[in-house]
């Protein structure tokens, strides 16, 4: 386990298509289990409200698309006007925090080295079932020290 590392997860277009459509990205369940077994702490850092996250989590759990603990993930509150500043994660060392997000504009310039990139997942068109982004991210995460 990568002790004392916090992994902040974006929701929309990273783990799922959108809070409205709520299609999970291929391999999501396995990815979350990997994260649980690899990192000391997982948090949700998303633009959707906590109530919307809870609704989505319940829907995904009912479909067995995510592990049963997904809805219990710590939700990071922010004003949604600025950047996803990792300093908002309580009791965390920013140098040991990483943000998995599809959008560069949400990443603080001073925290660019803490950003794990992923292509947006929109669940449209051909090749949706061939999406392997979460598997690519697992390789990146395994390389973290």
Quick overview of this protein structure:
The chain is α/β, with parallel strands linked by helices and 145 residues long. Helices cover 23% and strands 17% of the residues.
Tell me what you see in this structure:
It is a single chain. This protein has a single domain, classed as HAD superfamily/HAD-like (Rossmann fold). Helix content is 23%, strand content 17%. It has helices at residues 28-38, 50-62, 133-142, and strands at residues 2-9, 39-44, 74-75, 97-101, 115-117. Helix 1 (28-38) runs parallel beside helix 3 (133-142). The longest helix is centred in the middle third of the chain and has 13 residues, at 50-62.
Question: Strands, helices and their partners?
Answer:
Blueprint: E1 2-9, H1 28-38, E2 39-44, H2 50-62, E3 74-75, E4 97-101, E5 115-117, H3 133-142
Parallel strand pairs: 1-2, 1-4, 2-3, 4-5
Helix pairs in contact: 1-3
Total strand count, please? 5
> How widely separated are the two ends?
10 Å
Tell me roughly what share of residues is in helical segments: 10-25%
What's the gyration radius in Å?
Answer: 14 Å
The dominant shape is globular
CATH homologous superfamily?
HAD superfamily/HAD-like
Largest sheet: 5 strands, parallel
For the record, the CATH class is Alpha Beta
Task: List key phrases describing it.
5 strands; 5-stranded parallel β-sheet; alpha/beta; Rossmann fold; 145 residues; 3 helices; single chain
């Amino acid at each position: 386990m990568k002790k004392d590392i916090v992994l902040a997860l974006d929701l929309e277009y990273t783990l799922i298509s959108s809070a409205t459509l709520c299609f999970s990205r291929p391999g999501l369940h396995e990815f979350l289990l990997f994260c649980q077994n690899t990192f000391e702490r997982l948090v949700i850092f998303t633009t959707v409200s906590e109530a919307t996250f809870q609704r989505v989590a319940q829907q995904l759990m009912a479909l067995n698309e995510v592990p049963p603990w997904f809805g219990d993930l710590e939700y990071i509150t922010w004003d949604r006007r600025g950047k996803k500043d990792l300093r908002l994660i309580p009791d965390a060392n920013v140098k040991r925090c990483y943000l998995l997000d599809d959008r560069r504009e949400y990443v603080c310039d001073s925290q660019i080295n803490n950003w794990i990139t992923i292509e947006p997942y929109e669940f449209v068109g051909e090749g949706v079932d061939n999406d392997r982004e979460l598997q690519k991210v697992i390789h990146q995460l395994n390389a973290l020290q």
